[in-house]
Design a protein that fits this description.
385 residues, alpha+beta, D-Amino Acid Oxidase, Chain A, domain 2
């Protein structure tokens, strides 16, 4: 999110300073593991539609400016149980996505399991499951997109400081309830390397946002540790983005969820899988960053082998990602309750990257004008308190 804001703000001619405690794209936050799923038919809600559609346009614009391929529209399957599920996040996602797609005129079809098995004989989908398919869905190269936006932001005049930690943000007095003009007093950002002044400040620090968020928002923010594991396959050509869509695969509970990511050009030569868990919270500075052998074995036995038996149990790579969630799994993008000069742009609850560059564009417009787009209203904090 931060790289997107910096890019769009610099692109529009604003004077931009970006500060990051590490050197993005890095492997300590939420934007790692090479790829992220994108879907135009966003089953999470119709209020996301403008951002994912605009993001698809912006990924292509970024590709044209950088020469890097960022968006692979390989298509995507969603598989959910026909019966009851205790998974409130994904359990009825085929139906939810189908409804959104029909309302928005997005190409999305329901496929019978027998038809699916004919098309993909090596992938196990049962008659007790529902399958939906979106041909315009795909994968975004997440780390590459962050790097491209930072590089282009610098090219457009942004100043980017890495290896520098923000310690505090102090807005000017009496800036709540009205826009801040260019003549107004500046907010002060203190880091471990210096002090900076700006008319508006965007806090897009991913899993570190709780330490900078307002005391009102902190109880609503929860960080969780998630796994991504790449397993070896014998016939790699059958699992590339050119030949295989992605899968969002839900089960009876969140413990059964798995995402399957085909290999993009230049990606790790293996098939990537991700799981989700929300039982245990963590802290970004104390999270266990390694993935144990027992975690990999359990992952394979529960989530991989029953669905795609031809995938080997040989692990090529494993990574830890961090989600930052709100109680309703939607975003938090809103100005501070103490000051209209400061805007918090997180968490994205594990499904934000597909929208990120368009959200960055919208927040960059706020930085220029002091006015939030009406499209951002569903993500404001009032619903959480």
């Amino acid at each position: 999110m931060g790289s997107a804001v910096a890019y769009h703000a610099a692109r529009s001619g604003q004077r931009v300073l970006g500060v990051d405690r590490y050197d993005p794209p890095h492997d300590l936050g939420s934007t790692k593991a090479e790829t992220r799923i994108t879907r135009l038919a966003v089953g999470e809600g119709s209020h996301y539609l403008p951002f994912v559609a605009r993001s698809h346009q912006l990924w292509r614009d970024l590709e044209a400016r950088s020469g890097e391929q960022l968006l692979h529209q390989c298509g995507g399957y969603i598989v959910t149980p026909r019966g009851e599920s205790t998974d409130d996040r994904w359990g009825d996602f085929v139906s939810a996505t189908n409804t959104i797609a029909a309302q928005a005129g997005i190409d999305f079809s329901i496929i019978e399991p027998a038809q699916f098995r004919t098309q993909h004989p090596g992938i196990v989908v049962g008659d007790d499951e529902r399958v939906g398919y979106e041909p315009t869905a795909g994968l975004v190269m997440a780390e590459r997109a962050v790097a491209v936006q930072i590089d282009l932001a610098r090219r457009d005049g942004a100043e980017i400081h890495t290896g520098e930690r923000v310690v505090s943000i102090t807005p000017s007095v009496a800036s709540v309830g009205g826009s801040v003009t260019q003549s107004a007093a500046s907010a002060v950002v203190e880091t471990d390397a210096g002090r900076y002044h700006g008319h508006r400040v965007v806090v897009a620090t991913g899993p570190w946002i709780p330490e900078l968020a307002s005391t009102l928002d902190q109880p609503a923010l929860r960080v969780t540790r998630q796994l991504a594991v790449w397993f070896e396959v014998d016939e790699l050509e059958a699992f590339r983005t050119e030949t295989l869509p992605f899968f969002i695969w839900a089960g009876a509970s969140i413990d059964d969820y798995v995402g399957v990511f085909p290999m993009p050009p230049g990606g790790t030569p293996a098939l990537k899988f991700v799981s989700e868990q929300f039982h245990e919270s963590t802290d970004p500075d104390r999270a266990e960053r390694s993935v144990s052998r027992s975690e990999i074995d359990d992952f394979y036995e529960r989530l991989v082998h029953p669905k795609i038996p031809s995938v080997s149990n040989r692990c090529v790579k494993a990574a830890v990602c961090l989600y930052t969630n709100t109680p309703d799994d939607h975003f938090l993008i809103d100005t501070s309750p103490e000051s209209d000069q400061v805007l918090y742009m997180s968490p994205c609850s594990g499904h934000g990257f597909k929208h990120s560059t368009a959200l960055g564009e919208a927040v960059a417009q706020w930085a220029a004008t002091g006015s939030l787009s009406p499209d951002l209203e569903p993500f404001q904090r009032a619903r959480l308190h």
